[in-house]
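Recap from last week: sequence in, structure out.
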Amino acid sequence: MKDLPHTALRGTLHVLWVATLAVPLIAVLREPSATRWLGVLGLLILAVAYAVALREAKLWVLVAATLVSIPLVAPVGPDEMSTWAWIGGGAAGFAPLLLSGVWRWMAAIGAVVLSGLVGFFVTRDHTTYQMIAAAVGATIIAMAGLPMWFAGLLAQARAGREAQAELAVSEERLRFARDVHDLLGHRLTVIALKAELAGRLAESDPQRSAAEAFEAQRLASSALEEVRDAVHGYRSVNFPEQLEAVRDVLTEAGIRCTVTDVPVHGEGATQLALALREACTNVLRHSHATWCMIDVAEEAGEVRMTVTNDGTEKPSGEGNGIRGMNERLAPVGGKASTELSGDVFTLQVVVPA
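Predicted structure tokens:
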């Protein structure tokens, strides 16, 4: 409790506790006999027990000290000052603040009843003791209960803000993970294909092998730059360039590719470009395609990209790539769906125009 609200609350509790002991202390000091030192000892025990209970959350220490104070403090002082009734009132007021559930109110009522019993045996006037205990307890609850309630709300609000911040960080990590997957998945697949091709051509066609190796190196450098861009912030992706790049990559892999497109701009273009990368990666990785058609059309306020290829052997279940695509499209109002008919696989991505 190092922040200001909790420090103020703790200070209020201390002041209230000292106030409940003020009248008993005056009553004890007015006792002419030597028994007043027993009363002082009882009050000192109460003060120490309260400090221990508040600091170390050991409520039983305060309960034990309260019971011990009955034989030490109750018989001391003038009858008209109702010495122990104030201590009973303090117990009745602090019980609801230190306990929880139904026990808090049972303890408060018990403290008032106990005050009446003490008053009956000391002065034969249990009514006055109970009235004082009830009044003191109600005062403490009114003065400290509301600040404690506000402190609880403050703690809940702070916990809520921390949870919201952690959730935002987690969502951003997932977003970044999906983007890195899209960036590297496509590039590394193409690099692996070109490296394999370069290895096959090393003896039969050294010149083309060197060209493929150089292209793999260029793609690796490009992938590194894109990853660096992703680390330093998200950037827009040029959709026409991505269409052209995908067509070139598929053609070089021996896949006949046709593209039909319309101009797309803004966030929709970026999301379509990322989805196109994922689709190209899937064609290269999960099929033995001989042809691929990419169709981009706009209608009814939506841009629809359809990627269709043959040679698919993988079941049409949703994989990590499609699931990540849907998670990325959802915030911009887009969606992705797939369909498998024979060996023809179709991916359809829709984003707002």
